[in-house]
Amino acid sequence: MGIARIIGGLWESIEESTYDGRSYLSKEDEPDYEVKMSDYFVDSYMRVKNGIASYFQPQSICEIGVSSGISALAFLNACPKARYLGIDNRYEEEMRGVNLVSRAVELLQPYNAKVTIIDSQELNELPEPYYDLIHVDGDHSRLATYHDVVVAWKACSPDGWIVVDDARDSAVAAGVFDAIRMVWPSEVMWAYLHDTFTGNILIKKEMPRP
Questions:
Q1: 127 is in which domain, residue-wise?
Q2: How many separate domains does the chain show?
């Protein structure tokens, strides 16, 4: 199936999503709380993540950058039986004096989910591979994004998908394509989901042709 047909089906799934995770947000701790409580954020972020998982129906999900669990909960709402592993270094909450990751761990208890506290930059490979969907939302520098996409590619199932958040950031976008060029110097199926809150790059894991 070509990328245009996949994206068409994906957008239908996103548009059909009714997911609304605002009840999980903590006014005291959540960064940009008022923005995240807006209808626009629900439509262009929460339902995008929910629609992606609803369309692909991954049986296993890994996420680099958990924070308060907004995207994790959106994914697992769409595929509640999926195995989920989150990776986070708690740097953000330590700097702000809040407890975002601990809140995510609590909210994720009903699911087959766990969160590992480690800096993804220290990993040469992701724990417990393989994953059908990997969400990269960690350090937004070019070099860090490059590293996270490389380890995500290694841990992604054959024909699995990687979603990179914050792709409107030019450093993130540059890191993504640095990584793609390194791990797969031939053609790669990818798409930019521009009509989303932060911009997302969607990459399909491909296996060598015979």
A1: 3-204
A2: 1
